[in-house]
């Protein structure tokens, strides 16, 4: 009986968090345009409507391009930072790594306003997909470092040293020995950064140009009551995609730990 209060608490918390998400597919397949019970009947017309909306397709392309480039940039920078944190010792290392991880605790709207001022007032640049990519890279890089820190810290440095003793240069040893060993962490980082960038609204709302991202486009649809079922259908697809990518990222993370012979102490899932 001692564990029942905790179990009840966990059940209530999960219901509070995920019950609204479960409503997405229910109303997405509802035939009525009004979001209310009782349901009118089963229909896929809201999903079919997604295929005939050019503005939605453009927003989706923008988000996919931004998320892909952001994932590549954030993971590349994350690899460099995580390797430096695990393999090197230099004055101020802890302070520098802490500064790099600072965006994790900063309010996202504050970061968005600050970057908007820098882009428009200081640098006098036009808002575009590249400004969103730069902002998303700043936000995603700490997540990438957090994922890759474990991969590099659990890596035996003697492997790379042995490769250099056999005639490889430092870059060759890293490319042929270290990189394959941390590749599951890199793939996991790419997927997590892609999800974060794809789902972000606050930074995109402030820094997007003439072509909105998918979350900004969805927010614009909320002004129209008739568009709510379409939002439900689109939300169902996005939630399914995000959960699928998250599961794949967790699988790669655990695979990397298993290859290193390390017991898993918890992760995304």
TrEMBL record:
PROSITE patterns in the record, alphabetically? ABC_TM1 (PS50928)
- Where is the chain membrane-spanning? 12-40, 60-84, 96-118, 130-152, 173-198, 227-249
All copies of the ABC transmembrane type-1 domain together span 60-249
Instruction: Look up the record and give one Gene Ontology term from the biological process aspect.
Output: transmembrane transport
- Provide the membrane topology annotation: Multi-pass membrane protein
Keyword vocabulary terms for this entry: Cell membrane, Membrane, Transmembrane, Transmembrane helix, Transport
**Gene Ontology cellular-component annotations:** plasma membrane
Give the location in the cell. Answer: Cell membrane
Cite the Pfam families for this sequence.
Answer: BPD_transp_1 (PF00528)
Which family does the record claim for this protein? Belongs to the binding-protein-dependent transport system permease family. CysTW subfamily.
The molecule here is called: ABC-type spermidine/putrescine transport system, permease component II
């Amino acid at each position: 009986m001692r564990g029942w209060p905790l179990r009840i608490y966990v059940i209530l918390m999960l219901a509070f968090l995920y019950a609204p998400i479960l409503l997405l597919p229910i109303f997405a397949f509802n035939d009525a345009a009004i979001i209310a019970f009782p349901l009118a009947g089963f229909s896929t017309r809201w999903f079919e409507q997604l295929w005939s909306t050019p503005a939605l397709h453009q927003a989706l392309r923008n988000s996919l391009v931004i998320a892909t480039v952001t994932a590549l940039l954030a993971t590349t920078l994350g690899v460099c930072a995580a390797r430096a944190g695990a393999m090197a010792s230099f004055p101020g290392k802890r302070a520098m790594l802490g500064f790099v991880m600072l965006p994790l605790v900063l309010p996202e709207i504050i970061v968005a306003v600050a970057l908007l001022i820098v882009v428009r007032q200081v640098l006098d640049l036009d808002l575009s997909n590249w400004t969103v990519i730069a902002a998303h890279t700043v936000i995603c890089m700490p997540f990438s470092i957090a994922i890759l820190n474990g991969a590099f810290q659990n890596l035996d440095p003697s492997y790379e040293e042995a490769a250099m003793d056999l005639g490889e240069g430092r870059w060759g040893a890293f490319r042929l020995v270290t990189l394959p060993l941390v590749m599951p962490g890199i793939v996991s980082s790419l997927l997590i950064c892609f999800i974060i960038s794809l789902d972000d609204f606050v930074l995109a709302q402030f820094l997007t140009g003439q072509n909105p991202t998918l979350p900004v486009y969805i927010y614009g649809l909320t002004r129209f009551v008739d568009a709510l079922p379409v939002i439900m259908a689109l939300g169902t697809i996005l939630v399914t995609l995000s959960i699928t990518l998250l599961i794949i990222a967790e699988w790669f993370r655990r695979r990397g730990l298993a290859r290193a012979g390390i017991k898993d102490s918890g992760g995304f899932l």
